[in-house]
Structure prediction request, 264 residues.
Amino acid sequence: MAQPHIIEEMLAVMARLRDPEHGCPWDLEQDFSTIAPYTVEEAFEVAEAIAAGDMHGLRDELGDLLLQVIFHARMAEEQGLFDFSDVTRGLIDKMIRRHPHVFGDQQGASIAQIKDTWEATKAAEQAGAGKARHSMLDGVPDGLPALQRAAKLQKKAARVGFDWHDAQPVLAQVRAELDELEAAMQGGVADEITDELGDVLFSVVNLSRHLKNDADLSLRGASHKFERRFRMMEQMAAEQGQSLENMNVAALEALWAAAKARLT
Prediction:
């Protein structure tokens, strides 16, 4: 278990990096907006390490993500807004409030009850902070990756019963959206094509959710599979003394089939 002095040491390192006289020039010129993209990137690298089953990599990526929290907290402290202790104290208090089945008098609550309590507590917290919700869909950040945001919106709508009962009608909806996309393609109006393609993607996310799957992880897996096969194509072409750029479509398709067979 991490000892308190380890955290203090990391906070001291960040303070040194941000020291106006002796700090790092790059760290000193950063602000919340410039660091935010790195924060998002580190979160994705954590997810990638987990998906790969790379526990050594996960340890390192979690450290990088923690650095982002410490970096933001340090900049806030410099501006007299809050510090790392405020962040951790707020988190501790929030976890205790949102888990009355562990820290309070709701022991034995079901998973559904736990989720309801979490959402109700979160909504009360936001109302107390002047962020009252006016819709069930409030609280889903625009900055989320599109696939994740679609899934969150769908889950929130499902809480009031606006949802399919199982995956079969959702699959039918995907097919219907594909038909509408095809009609839009035939019409050749770019905006309509974009709109219908979005509907297809939204429906696929819905199907993934009903299949108890994560659309983002599924797409990542498909991308990794494509990458492995394409790299194999390049390798096989090189073994034949050729390059993909000089091959015709038929040759590329044959090489793709061979790569799939070799990696199966």
